[in-house]
Each structure stands twice: as structure tokens, then as C-alpha cells.
Design goal:
This protein has 284 residues and is an alpha/beta fold. Helix content is 44%, strand content 18%. Strand 8 (161-165), helix 8 and strand 9 form a beta-alpha-beta unit. Bound molecules: FE3-S4 cluster (F3S).
Length: 284
């Protein structure tokens, strides 16, 4: 049986970098308390593994304020400036694993805010990445996530604006919302800050699914990006299976196929992908 594994399966560059940094800190700082500000990734196995190695998750600013010793890792989503300030005030060591693509947005927002522009963030208001961006824009921002909010957008026409996007936002939706706001006649600069990782993963999954007899999509039950990958693959390949781990896969279903594709959502660790790959290979 031929097995094709998507090169873009699993962690994107930014998430991989952040997870690696936590493991690095563990091995370099035995005996010191390591924290992550928020779970490093939406994957229970990884978070539990880190917990077993002594890493604690800080869930709020209030919790962070109480901590006076240790190492705090900032995850790939990034955080607002206030979090850096608290870490500094409390004399904690910071390991900043903010994805460079997110950091770039923070820098744009600070620069354009200082140039007097009102910041429009196209994204989902309660997403941690957007929370962080908002913090750098201070109070002069609007978050727009849908048509209705774009329609409602109405600030003084004197004000210049700068539009950025959450890195994982859908490009077509972004374009559409930007067009909607542009019609209002403001002096606008638009920076498309969408990251390609999601798009590349989806494009590759579609391509592989169209060439194989069966497709395996690995990811958490509640992972929306894995669900999306599954939908894309299912459109191309009727025998598409959505699994969390190898235990969910009924290998007998693959008995009569000659070519299988494997992809995985953004928070699926490599060892889980490898385990599925190895089991399929051994069996056939
Ligand atoms: Fe990942 Fe960074 Fe893009 S975290 S999705 S590589 S913005």
C-alpha cells in the first residue's frame, strides 16, 4: 500500500516553535517552576504531558500577578503589553514564544497607532490572538468579525484607519469585509496579516485527497481547523476518516485500498501522526 503523508500535517511553524521552547526550558532549568500563560496549545495530550513534567498553566492576569518566581512562556498567540509589564514587575524570567507573524502585527499596530490611525482588527473578538493585538492598540481600535459589524463601523471621517487581520482569518471573508469598510471613504491602509500555514495545509490536504483511495484526518474532536480539513478531504475522497488517535481507526476498512493519504489538524503532535503512519504501514 502506498501512504502519502502531508508535509503540512500537524503543528505550524509558530506552534512547533512554542512547544519546543517549553520542552527546552524544562531540560535547561531543572528545579525551577515553569509556567505557560494560557495552555501552550489546544491539545490535551501535550498539555497533560507538560503538566506531568511540572509545568503549570496561568489562566488570568490576576493569577500572574500573584506569581513572584519562575519562568513564564508566552505562547504563539502572543499577549498584550500589560502581560509583559506584570512579568517584568514581578521579576519573572520571560520566554517569548509569540509567533513572529503575530509579533509583526503587534509592531504594525503600535507604529500605526502612533501615526494617529485607528486600528481595525478583522478577527474574532474573543480569540486570544485578537486579545493580544487589542492590547497593543490600546483603546483606539475596533474589532470586525462579520458583515454586520463592518456595516456598523462608523467613526469620525477625520480619522485615518489601519486594517490588520487575525493570522488565521479566512482570506475571502477578510477581503469582503475590507471592501465593505473601504466604501465608507476613510483614508485607509490595509495590511493583510493572514498567515499562509492554514491555507497551505488545506490546499495540500485537498490535493492528496483527490489522488488517494482513502484519507485519514487526525485531530481533536473539538478542533475546528481539523473539522474543516475533514470536510475538504471528504469532498474529494469518499473514504475519509476523522480520528483522534490510532485507537479510533478501524484498520479493516483500509483492507481493499491501495493508496492512503494522511493529514492532521494544527494542534496534532507529530508522535500521533507517526503512530498512525506506522500502524497503517505495519498492517498493510
Ligand atoms: Fe502558526 Fe504563526 Fe501562522 S502560530 S498559523 S505560523 S501565525
Amino acid at each position: 500500500m502506498e501512504i502519502i503523508i502531508a508535509k503540512s500535517a500537524g503543528f505550524c511553524f509558530g506552534v512547533k516553535r512554542a512547544v519546543d521552547k517549553v520542552y527546552e526550558e524544562i531540560s535547561n532549568n531543572q528545579g525551577q517552576q515553569i509556567y505557560t500563560y494560557g495552555p501552550i496549545i489546544h491539545n490535551e495530550e501535550v498539555v497533560n504531558d507538560l503538566e506531568n513534567k511540572g509545568v503549570k498553566v496561568i489562566n488570568s492576569k490576576e493569577e500572574l500577578r500573584q506569581i513572584k518566581e519562575g519562568i513564564v512562556v508566552i505562547r504563539s498567540h502572543g499577549v498584550e503589553k500589560e502581560i509583559y509589564d506584570i512579568i517584568e514587575e514581578n521579576k519573572l524570567k520571560i520566554v517569548d514564544a509569540t509567533c513572529p507573524f503575530v509579533k509583526k502585527i503587534h509592531n504594525i499596530v503600535v507604529k500605526e497607532k502612533n501615526n494617529g490611525r485607528h486600528i481595525v482588527i478583522i478577527g474574532n473578538d474573543n480569540h486570544p490572538e485578537v486579545e493580544g493585538i487589542k492590547g497593543w492598540a490600546e483603546s483606539d481600535y475596533t474589532v470586525v468579525s462579520n458583515d454586520e459589524e463592518a456595516e456598523k463601523f462608523d467613526i469620525s471621517k477625520e480619522k485615518k484607519i489601519c486594517i490588520v487581520s487575525q493570522t488565521t482569518f479566512n482570506y475571502n471573508k477578510f477581503k469582503y469585509l475590507v471592501e465593505n469598510i473601504s466604501k465608507k471613504g476613510y483614508d485607509i491602509i490595509v495590511l493583510n496579516t493572514i498567515c499562509n500555514a492554514t491555507n497551505e495545509r488545506q490546499t495540500e490536504a485537498r490535493d492528496i485527497a483527490s489522488r488517494v483511495d482513502a484519507m485519514i484526518v487526525i485531530g481533536g474532536k473539538h478542533s475546528s481547523n481539523t473539522q474543516k480539513l475533514y470536510d475538504i478531504c471528504k469532498q474529494e475522497c469518499n473514504l475519509t476518516y476523522y480520528i483522534q488517535t490510532i485507537d479510533d481507526l478501524d484498520l479493516s476498512k483500509l483492507q481493499s485500498v491501495s493508496c492512503v493519504g494522511i493529514t492532521a489538524g494544527a494542534s496534532t503532535p507529530n508522535n500521533i501522526i507517526e503512530e498512525v503512519h506506522t500502524n497503517v504501514r505495519i498492517k498493510f
